[in-house]
Structures are given as C-alpha cells and as structure tokens.
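#dry-run=false #mode=assembly
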Amino acid sequence: MSSKSRNGNNRKVVAYSDLAIRNNLSVVEYCRTSMAALSGCTAGVLGLTGLYGAVFYIFAVTSLWFMILFKAGLSNWKNYFISRKALLTNGFFGQLFTYILCWTFIYGMVHVY
Amino acid sequence: MPATLFHRFVLTIGFLSLFHVAYSAAQHRSYLRLNELDFTHLPLDVIIQAFISLFVIMYGVMNVAGDFKEIKASAELENRFWETFKNVPSFYTFSHRGRFLNPSYSSYKGDDE
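#status=ok
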C-alpha cells in the first residue's frame, strides 16, 4: 500500500504522510524559535558583543540540530525527517532576527542599566 | 513519550537558573562599576551556569514541544488487521436463521402454536 515497485526497475517509491511531516516540522519550528530566543537571552547575559554573538548563534543552532537528531534517534532519524541538512539550515536567517532581538534586549537590561 | 510533569519541572528550574545568572551578571557589573574596574568577561562560574541552564531549558522545551510521528504513510496502518476495517456495527444483523438453532427458541414456538 505504501510502497510499490515501478514497472521495469525495482526502485521503491515511498509514500509519506502529509500530516506526520507537518506535525514534525511544527515541533521542530517550535524548538527552533525557543532556541533562538533563549540563546539570545544567554548571549545577552554573557555580555557577548560583535562576532562572538554570531559565533554563539551558530553554536546554538548546531547544538539544537544535534539535540533534535538525538531525540529522533541517531540511527533512525530517517523515520521522522526526509533531509538532515534541511533540518539544520531551514529558517537560519529568519530565527537570526529573533536571536538579535533577545540578545540586544537582555544585554541592555543586564549590562547597560 | 508525551510531556510529563518532570519535563515541566525541568523547564521551570532552567528558567529560574537563567534568571539567577542574569542577576549574578548584573551584580558583577555593579561591583565593577563601584570599584571602577574595566569589564573583560564574567566570572567562570557564571558562564558555566549560563551554558548549563540553556541546555537544561532546551531539553525541557524539546520534550514539552511534542513527539515526532513516523512520516511513512503506512506507519500507522501496519498494526491494523482486516477484521478491524471489516467491523461495521451499523450493519450488524441479529434476526437471522441462527436463532432456529437455539433449542429454547424451538420449544417456545411449539408451545405457542
């Protein structure tokens, strides 16, 4: 029902469940937004300035990627996601603005005033 | 596994810890200002606590966000059987010839006539 052989070649065609993909992506999106806000708060508390903040953002995104893969299971992440690379790079610049907002706000709260 | 009380507790602890880090950083900043020292970096214990609380919060968020679903369309159909789909209660029939096989039914009929 899910997979059928094409005539001629034996390559398997896998049918994906639309609902499950959307559910997984919304869970990941939730985690990513939270991670951007929280790592921005942490960067502000630590008093990072300039490029150190950007490096910290990349570190946060990468560690979130590892945590998601670890939650899905390092060997069977293919059951839950189609592409591992898209999981890392999706919404990178979109979340960067959330990060910068929290970063500057908390930096101002803790270190300036 | 769905979100449990334990994960919400972990999340709360993480947020309290991050708030404590922010308070410590602000206090360190005012200490520097009173002693007219220059800011280079925060004390090491504050930095370590910031990182730990960030990861504790992320662990809590990832578990509260929800579970991943298997994206294969057949994933939730694999454990069902034909009997499950065949079972339609609206089409149940109880007045069929099976009642003639019941001994008490035939004796009751005989008395009536």
